[in-house]
Design a protein that fits this description.
about 300 residues; alpha/beta; Heat Shock Protein 90; Rossmann fold; five-stranded parallel beta sheet; 9 helices; 10 strands
């Protein structure tokens, strides 16, 4: 993680006023992390610039990276809890802080306390963290500064193996068709795969996916949610085969929505990915499905 913070320090040069002390600390700079460093740099940079603006009379800005293990009860309803250690990125300031009313609206699109702000910076940060399978936490109080914590799951096996042995998860502009009725899942798939170098088309139904294929041709890979009611996954698979698609399919299956039986799946190249899943598992499954390397177990 040292390279990520070093790059952030370079980006901040010229933006930190003399009245603000900048501290950057990576407790374990050699930690290997599977993530889009460019997007994470943008997220941290945005948080740092917000912190600087919150200290018009000066203060201290701290950016830290360390391993952390969330305690029991840490995750909220709807958040994906993964076992094992997390990377915790912290941006803390000693500025004016925020009251509870402002904190409650902080992640609303277009909400801002700045005269010339857009209110999209924190929304973008949350999207980036979500696309990495992580969560954000924030604590603040008037006159006591603000602390943002980004928790990103670490791939323990990749970390133990060493950075040189981590498989390349970056896409090569392959065309991926993502199909899911659930808007949040579809957005997560689209944002994650797009950030990692894939050309993604998101369809919220099987019929929309078929219309896209008729207009744009066959994709290199299909990512399909098993939990679809309007036009089921089984019908979508059959229709894809009828349109000439013989490529790989990644089926997203939950405990209550298992994939269709093998006899009902026309394509022999179906890879089942159990929900919930993190960014690392998704990307490794994509690389395996495309024949670019097998995932770690």
């Amino acid at each position: 993680m040292g390279d990520l913070l070093d790059a952030l320090g370079l980006l901040l040069q010229g933006s930190v006023p003399r009245t603000v002390r900048l501290r950057v600390d990576a407790a374990d700079p050699e930690t290997a992390f599977e993530g889009n460093h460019t997007e994470l740099q943008q997220c941290l940079l945005n948080l740092c610039l917000n912190a600087i603006q919150a200290m018009p009379d000066g203060g201290e800005l701290r950016v830290e990276a360390a391993r952390a293990t969330p305690p029991p009860g840490f995750f909220l309803d709807g958040e994906e809890a993964q076992q094992g250690p997390y990377l915790r990125l912290t941006v803390a300031d000693t500025g004016m802080g925020m009251d509870e009313a402002v904190q409650a609206r902080l992640f609303e699109p277009f909400f801002t306390t700045k005269a010339n702000g857009t209110g999209l910076g924190l929304v973008s940060c949350k999207r980036i963290v979500d696309s990495h399978g992580g969560v954000m936490r924030m604590d603040s109080a008037p006159g006591e500064g603000t602390r943002f914590h980004l928790y990103l799951p670490l791939d323990v096996q990749a970390d133990e193996a060493g950075a040189d042995e981590v498989p390349c998860l970056q896409g090569e502009a392959e065309r991926v068709l993502a199909v899911a009725e659930e808007a949040a899942l579809l957005s997560l798939l689209s944002d994650t795969l797009d950030a990692w170098g894939y050309q993604v088309h998101a369809s919220q139904s099987g019929t929309a996916a078929l219309q896209w294929i008729e207009a744009g041709g066959l994709p290199d890979l299909v990512v399909l949610d098993a939990d679809m009611s309007l036009f089921t996954a089984e019908r979508t698979l059959a229709a894809l085969a009828g349109r000439g698609y013989a490529g790989a399919v990644i089926m997203l299956a939950g405990a209550d929505t298992p994939p269709p039986p093998a006899t009902a799946v026309p394509s022999p190249r179906v890879h089942v990915l159990d929900k919930p899943f993190g960014t690392g598992r998704l990307l490794r499954c994509v690389r395996q499905a495309l024949g670019r390397g097998a995932p770690r177990k």
